[in-house]
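Hi, here's the filled form for the chain we discussed.

Project: internal
Contact: R.S.
Residues: 1113
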Amino acid sequence: MRFRFYMLLFAAVLFVIWMGTIAVCWQLKPYHMAVPHELKKGLAEKVIAAAHLPARAAAVVDSLLDGAEPPAAKQQPAADVGAGAARAVEDQSVPLPAELADQVLSGSAGSGEAGGAPQNVAAGSVEAEGVAEASAAVGQAEERPRSGPSELTEAVGKASALVASLVESTGGEAHGGAEVPAHRTETFGCCQVSAKDSRCAAYEYAGGCVALAKGEKVECKRGFWNAAADFDQLTGRCTGMTPLAKERTSTLHLPAWARKAFRLPLDYRHDRCLQGEYPAPSTMPTVTIVIPYLMESWFHIQGTVGSLLWATDMNLVDEVRFVDDANPDDHSFKTELEALHPKVRVISNPTRIGLTHSKVVGTQGVTSPVIVFAEPHCVFNRFWLEPLLERMMTVPDTTVLLPLIDVIHDPYKQESLNTSQLYAQAGMNIGGFHLNTLLFDWESLSKRNSSYQEPDPFASPAMPGGILAISRAWWERTGKYDTGMTAWGGENIEMSIRLWTCGGRIETVPCSRIFHWFREHTPYKWDADAVTRNSKRTALVWLDEYINVYYKAEPWARLVDAGDVQDRVELRKKLQCKPFSWYLQEVYPEMRKTIPDGVPGLPPAGGRSGGKLKVGRLGQGEAGGCCQNSKRDSHCAFFDYANGCVKLKKGQTIGCTRGYWNPLADYDPESAMCVGPGTTAGETWESEANRNFPAWVKESFKLPPDYRHERCLEEKFPTPSTMPTVTIVIPYLTESWFHIKATVASLVWATNMDLVDEVRFIDDANEDAHKFRSEMEALHPKVRVISNQKRLGLTHSKVVGTQNATSPVLIFLEPHCIFAHGWLEPMLARLMASPKSTVVMPIIDVISDPYTQEQPLGKLYSSGGVNVGKFEVNTLTFGWTGIQSYNKSYQEPDVFATPAMPGGIFAIWKSYWEKSGTYDKGMGEWGGENIEMSIRLWTCGGRIETVPCSRIFHWFREHTPYKWDADAVTRNSKRTALVWLDEYINVYYKAEPWARLVDAGDVQDRVELRKKLQCKPFSWYLQEVYPEMRKTIPDGVPGLPPAGGRSGGKLKVGRLGQGEAGGCCQNSKRDSHCAFFDYANGCVKLKKGQTIGCTRGYWNPLADYDPESAMCV
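And the returned structure, exactly as it came back:
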């Protein structure tokens, strides 16, 4: 028994040794001797199909696999064969190892000799040499031990790629008798971007480009029809008989890192841009590119450099200077950047100086004739540089040139978006800005020049600032950037005004296009006051008397320290620059029409000539004179437009740009008030009316000035016993105790508390250090704190705060306010005299930023002016405009209607609050809820009014003390747009195309509310409530009638077909992209028999909406 066991064990060992020997022999066996024919054929077909090789190339690959000479091949090159192989790998449609993918894309090959050229291929030709290289690649593989079929896959991939690249390298023209790809029997045609660019132009209106069936006809809605080509679904391109020439989007010349660093952008250039010939590079000026960066990701920086190398003739570039604005070590990337290309150089700031100043640093020592400024999150389009340089060669060197700036969608992540979702085309726009805020904005070119012909260069009043080309000599002569500005923001407006008024010009060159990521928030912390300081510097130096328009809209800017601007004033004199009134007259006349009448120091709109400031007459006493707000209010009225209030010398004359000139007074810089004869000390805690308030009230806040009109003081209100009582709702999150306590103290001081039932503070899940529950409830018996179990956002918290309230009136406030005397009675009196559907607001005056207890009284408060609330339909963001621009005959302090409200401070009947739908609880955080409520109130039978005799001071802080979801505003705005804008949602989407990708949540309940309330369409709101907005909506927005004839008619309702499809609203008969027919939800898949309105475009009753492609199919 034991003997038998040992015999079996011995036999097993012999069997294992025998099998191991066979395995070793198999490993050493050459490929062409042992690979089964079926396996070779299957792998060859797979590679050939993936690379889209013609039959000729397929035969070569088969021959290489068999280890024999390739069979005879027709001498008929096909220019797109290599492109098919390369793009299949480039687009990651063919999964290959990284090393092999790099070899396929670069066309490299191993060494060695094996095989020979195919018959009918001239010896020594590029094609013959390529076949030899491909054969050598397989021969080299035969000399190494192989592990099995997986190695065969690599060898075949390498061979096929090399064969493909050698065919492409011939650059031969295709002719009628050429072969089609192996999987075709004939070509059916394909619509490509242009004759020189074979990317599919999405001609097939139902589903983008698709492979057509034999005999199928389709229209080419744009681009160039190539009847000899086919659409290749794998690469998304037209492949076949048309060469891509030099314009094709190949990346074969790039290093491997650059090919992986960015997605090839879409080419939005006009056909005329592709037809032009540029001067020889040797005749063009060279450039230095300056790119400042701070806390950028390596992905974005590498993508910028990669696309620059792909899109640029680097012979035209002397240096690419990245300016490191004192980044931390993990975001400096100096070594990595300089390793990318020998012309890339990093300049490091020892301390952070801001991106604007960093651009100036980046130009120091530059010798190139031209400087180009770019940003570290761009993707350059092909031939972006040549059009700029060609234009620069033909215009005076005082011309600054801009490309068209296309859009990279936010978030910019290579892995999350395909090319069509990542990039979007910008419209033909000019740069402009708002005089009241000095903030940049885009405006439609067609509104300025209806006869414009694309792609001619066109003048632009302003530039965005980040991307431009300028002559180095003009850059230095005109003063570069204002280095007194910090961080960034505002420098572009200063430079725009300076260039135009000092003899320069700004132009956009549409044949140059660069994609830019317009991100929602920066990856670094920055001084939020920087933009205000920078804008004030611009205003002080360049606006002349028009600074009063800016100050009227931004009164708190008067208190901002803008630093010393004398050097810029001297620069303006040195350059002999024209006045700002000339800029309005000659460069930007559109802006002149937006300036309201009644701004101190300016002549009427019809005759503005930039006249001098009104000059006050000084008194005969020792005092120099002072301009105070009014006879009753001796706060300084900021009469000197350059420096605010200053103490005048005896005999000095200066203009009083607003308010009341008191020649017997002096300006006191400590209190920022006019003091002396004819002034009032203002109310103090020692006044008889204030002596009896508790100490905590007196110590909590500084008594505010009284900005009420004199008529308000004479007005008689109903007795308190006849007025409705109120519940005050104040949500708060991470507020300081100083601000909350001051709010309550001023409320107690300024309010008849008999009219107040409760003051409800809503704690939005604050941390313990910011709850203040016991502290607040100890301040007054009517103060109550309601705590959210989790953070809901301040908008939703307001809704929570109204639950179970029994007061007839609700008032919403904020936890950083100071109340003025007599704020409550005027609003209640107006509510009593108006329909229950009326919502009323106070005038909102200003608490300056920073709001601290140490701030001097004269600098703490300022008048907010008499303004109406408004918003832009393209962004759905709130803003203010002077009442005179809305109602030229207005007389203060009459109550007036306002199209929109800021949202934080208003009074409403509780019954109407509930009936009209409270706030949209689907909105997160805050922001956008005020626009939604404004449209809802007006269109659903309500009304919004401002009561000027009621005034509340509010702190307009630059940044919040808590972190919040920055995307919330976009989601909230989209919810508003989906429910309330009807066909005008297309204006919003045109300005904010990325909003289409935002998930706004379910809005069906708000749609039902709109139906229930029988609300009027948004067109009625434009017609009856806010006609000023109608004038700002550009013509040509799909689904909207021309501006002259907008009547806001009913939605076009489509008739459903009889088939199974539910119907779909597409852009046009020829364009099946969804036209977002359902304004509440965008395109949705309809059920059979369901009817829905088509708010724009063409109703196709036989189609369905496909959510995956966002198209009608």
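Let me know if anything looks off before we file it.
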